[in-house]
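Protein data sheet
==================
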Amino acid sequence: MIHEILPVGMLACNCSILGDEKTGEAVVIDPGDEIERVQEILSRHALQVRYIVATHAHIDHVGGIEKLKRTTGAAVLMH
């Protein structure tokens, strides 16, 4: 399993990227900002995002969802 954590945005929200190295599928959790950095990690590991998960709706956790969804086509999940 691939597991990367990177603090993003002014509030340094921890964005997590979980990926399966066999299938190349990934989940991105709380992509609050700095989507270019997230995409660099996805590219480095040759991952395709299946799901974008927001643990809650504070801006530091959801600020980058729209941009990541546009570029990946992944489904967005939130409670």
Summary: The chain has three helices and five strands. The chain has a mean pLDDT of 97. The two ends are 25 Å apart (CA to CA). Residues 35-44 form the longest helix (10 residues).
